[in-house]
Structure formats: structure tokens, C-alpha cells
Amino acid sequence: MLINRLIIIIFSVIIASVSSFAQIEYGYDRPKSSTDPWKFGLNVNVSQDWINQQNGIEKKIGWKAGISGEKHLVYNIYFRPVFNFVSRGYTCNIANNFKNDVNAYLLDLELTIELKFGNERKGRGFLVYFAPFFTYGIGGTSTYTNLNPINPNGTDTPPDNYLMPIEYGTFDDYQFKKEDVGFIVGAGYDINHHIELNFNYVVGFFHVGSYNNFRWKNINFGITYFF
After folding, report:
1. Residue 27's CB: how many other CB atoms inside 10 A?
2. Rg for the chain (alpha carbons), in Å?
3. pLDDT band at 142, cuts 50/70/90?
4. What b/e readout covers 53-92, taking b as 16+ CB neighbours within 10 angstroms?
5. Global pTM?
6. pLDDT tens digits for 75-99?
7. Strand runs (DSSP E) across 34-154, as ranges?
8. Distances from the Cα of 14 to the Cαs of 8, 77, 110, in angstroms?
């Protein structure tokens, strides 16, 4: 799959970068620890979201937006904390069984380590990064639809809730778990000292609910603007 190949390429670049960053001259000579000040900005991402189930899953377009900081650490290594408001979801449609249309709103904290390569004076060049993330569900309304026309009472008429969407709070009791942790791996390009483009792959570690072993996944394309 294309996504798997992209992930392998990004991981390979990160591994090669970590093993060789000490020998890379990035822009100009500098002390081993940087005195560069913090930068702050805004970021916006468009995502494609799903879970790791194969049968009946339809991906949804989501988004996240928030604030970002950036601190130059040493050499070409940077630290970037990001705090986002996130909208994500997916649809699970099992013929003659059920349809689950999931919509979720979450808060997201990402603690990113970046490696940058290019011309530092112009703020231009490629970058790769890795980040653990932590999310907490705060809301969202989802629907469950019974697609099974067989009445459990043994009658010929369909059950009362047949094809009738039932709304529920995404993070209500016994629904989706509010907490999740996972990792992000990505790559990007600095256009200048203010604008950065990025692409990343995200996978969660926790099950989305206590009743299954499904986990969140998504890919993101975004832009960050630093003041």
C-alpha cells in the first residue's frame, strides 16, 4: 500500500538522520547548545481518518487546528510542542447488520522532535520528525443504525429500530474511550522562517472502546505559520 511505503521511507530517513546529524553542517557554525528564542505560531491540518478494522470501514475527512511552539535545541534538532482541537471520525457499514457513523471532537497534545536540513539563514529545507501524542475526547454526536431486517421476536415484520438512526454521545458511558496515546511520524518542508508544510501518519495505541480492539489511524497534511 502507498501509505505503508511512505511510512517506511519516513522511518528510513529518520534513522539515517539520527545516525549522521553530528556530521551535518546545517547553515553555519554554532555552539553545541542553541540560544535561539522560542517561536510561536498557528497550524491547520486536513486529515483522513479511520480505524484498523478492515471490514466495512469508510474513511472520513477530518481536521485539526491549534497553536505550536518551536525551540532550537542543538545542531539541527528542534523541539516542537503542539496543542490542537481535533475533529475526526469514520463510518462502519456491515451489510444486513449495522451502520455506525462516528464523529468525535478531541483535544490533542503533541511533543515533537524535529531534524531539519537545509539553509538555516533562509529558513528553507526539508525536515523529518517523530512525536508521541496524547488526546482526550470532549464531545461529538454519532449514530447507530440497525440494518438487520430479522425480528428477534420471530415475527415476519422487521424490528422497530430497523433503518432508524439512533443518536448517542460519542464519549458517553460504554461508548468510545476519551483517552488515547500514540505516535506521529512525518516529514515536511520549511519554505522560509514563517511557513512550514508537513505530512504525517498517526496511529493510536489504545482501543477506541472497551468492547473491541480497534485503534484510531489517520494521515494529515498541514501548514504551520510562525509569527
Report:
1. 16
2. 22
3. very high
4. eeeebebbebbbebebebebeebbbbebebebebbbbbbb
5. 0.83
6. 899 999 999 999 999 999 999 999 9
7. 39-51, 57-72, 77-94, 98-119, 124-139, 141-146
8. 10, 12, 18
